[in-house]
Amino acid sequence: MEKTFSLTRRDDGIALLTMDVPGETMNTLKAQFAPEITAILQEIKADSSIKGLVLVSGKPDSFVAGADISMLDACKTAEDARLLSRQGHHVFAELEGLNIPVVAAIHGVCLGGGLELALACHQRVCSDSSKTMLGVPEVQLGLLPGGGGTQRLPRLVGIATALDMMLTGKQVRPKQAIKMGLVDDVVPQSILLETAIKMAAAGKKSRAPKKTSLVTKLLEGTGVGRNIMFDQAEKQVMKKTQGNYPAPLKIIDCVREGMAKGMEKGLEVEAAHFGALVATPQSAALRSIFFATTEMKKETGAGDVAPRAVKKAMVLGGGLMGGGIASVTTTKAKVPVRVKDISEKGLSNALGYAYKLLDKGVKRRHMTPAERDKLMALMTTTTDYRGVKDADIVVEAVFEDLNLKHQMVRDVERECAEHTIFASNTSSLPITQIAAAAARPENVIGLHYFSPVEKMPLVEVIAHDKTSPETIATTVAFARKQGKTPIVVKDCAGFYVNRILALYMNEAAQLLLEGQSVEHLDKSLVKFGFPVGPMTLLDEVGIDVGAKISPILEKELGERFKAPAAFDKLMADERKGRKNGKGFYLYGKAAGKTKKVDESVYGVLGLVPGTAKEAGEIAERCIVQMLNEAVRCLEEGIIASPRDGDIGAIFGIGFPPFLGGPFRYMDTMGAAKLVGLLEGYQRRFGDRFTPAPLLKSMAAEGKSFY
Ligand SMILES: C[C@@H](O)CC(=O)SCCNC(=O)CCNC(=O)[C@H](O)C(C)(C)COP(=O)(O)OP(=O)(O)OC[C@H]1O[C@@H](n2cnc3c(N)ncnc32)[C@H](O)[C@@H]1OP(=O)(O)O
To answer: Which ranges carry the 3-hydroxyacyl-CoA dehydrogenase C-terminal domain (predicted)?
Structure first.
């Protein structure tokens, strides 16, 4: 088997240990490396000519991306995974126990077990490259740092900083890393190796104690103080996760035990918790999301058709969506973008949106003011079509008005190049209808973003029958450069995400009209695992947007999409939600500092909240609607696979990731059980709960989606 590690001796006595996993894009830690690395460490121990050791990666722009997640997926039992963790502990202890200085030279991603490997070295130096990121993202996989991270990290950077990193899984940049004491130096990549060699040659540095405030000393330096911290951390975790994710609490327990009973005990607890977490359904679901999104990164959306380069873009409409689309085009894709709006106000909104985003980066010291201004210069504005002849793609983000979109299509075909793609950010109009005005329909496609654009990772790419494969591939590649996860969906009203969301929201509306309070509805779905409840979501998206989309969906897809008539009263009362400060909740001064329901909404709807139903029933009624419609979308080919349906729901509307998405959740529940629930509700509430035919046949045949 090809070697992963190679040891190079230098005349000055400093040896280089290079890690380069053969045939892989990135280094990952695998159990099969243990004998090889153990043998090398023995060789180093036995060679008195070696005075110091520098650990480097053989990959061009990454250090180590963590333990091999496929290896974790292959663990059959919790004990298998616990033993993997203990194996890592022993190897890292061997490295840390070398009596010569060991320095990690880090360039590129250094994550999970990769950072734990670096923590077992005596010192760390990293490059100042934007490609260099350090973190312990295990919690995002439903796991915890199982290579000693829960013990070494708090002892290096302090308990509070370590918990923040481990509980969020966030990655830190070099400047942050040196500030928190995670690395000992940050240098340009060109002198990274020589710096590491000098550090190794200079001998082991006893780490100067981290300068901390009196409060930190009291909290972290005493048992009482630490327990206050841990208890507070647990409360925050429960508030955020509603108890749906076991990993964060286990992380806190590892640190608590290790700090109270010593590192060895802490490592034992870490391995036991790590093993148990690998075996949880939550981690299996989260790992499946990693595999799915990694697989999707390689897909063009149009087979082997190569995308065209997008060297210049244009956005029509400088509103909330247009501003966000233009912002991610400059800040993420780094593509020049020209924003057109009918008013200077719209243009200044787009510019302000981008500037605000970029300035956050300056304030967080992620970029310099000069870098901000350079990116801002990529965005230009116009109230006409000057300067767009060379636009490769035009994204329209104007009102949901078909005639207006037809006008945009004609304008773009007149003013831009023959190859220019017309991408519509419509959230509901069939692309076929928009393309009807096109002389070049092959260039027309849907590119549906979710609000807020800079935060929501999903985009739906909607091809109509005449959309060319090159247009699809180019649009998918453009969205990916914007940092998006695109799913290609078939053209129909509401596409996929808004279609499954609509029935979920309608059921919540029905429950409201049955007398469930706004806050009880929202709390019930947050408890289920959504980031926000349906009423809050409607306020955020806009009650007027929902009112606009519903009749389109009802007309195109059928009676089950009919929104409750009482909701027309909300529009009559000009309740649009957050956007005009009048919705289900209070906004501005009326709200004060807490989130309060606008009780007047009950009067508008002519109802008085009654006896609260069980949160579980509320969630179930809304969820089964979403699940059933997701199956219909699969059956009609709106989504290409259960995988796309899962990723679309998780990244588009925050479907609980720990459930793996609608299709994985249905597999866990079983099609037969879901059919039973739907038929029960159908008997109680009518045909809107009629099970999808595919679901019924799967139930009858005992089939699953994966
Ligand atoms: C011991 C414990 O502490 C347990 C752990 O360490 S758990 C693992 C912790 N690490 C992570 O969660 C990182 C997961 N990886 C990523 O987030 C991303 O891959 C990246 C940010 C490292 C790089 O992203 P990107 O530049 O977009 O590249 P890809 O995602 O396409 O990845 C390139 C290839 O590397 C493979 N890969 C990356 N990380 C892992 C991993 N931890 N395990 C297995 N494979 C990994 C990825 O699958 C790609 O492989 P391909 O063959 O090129 O498709």
So the answer is: 494-587, 618-703
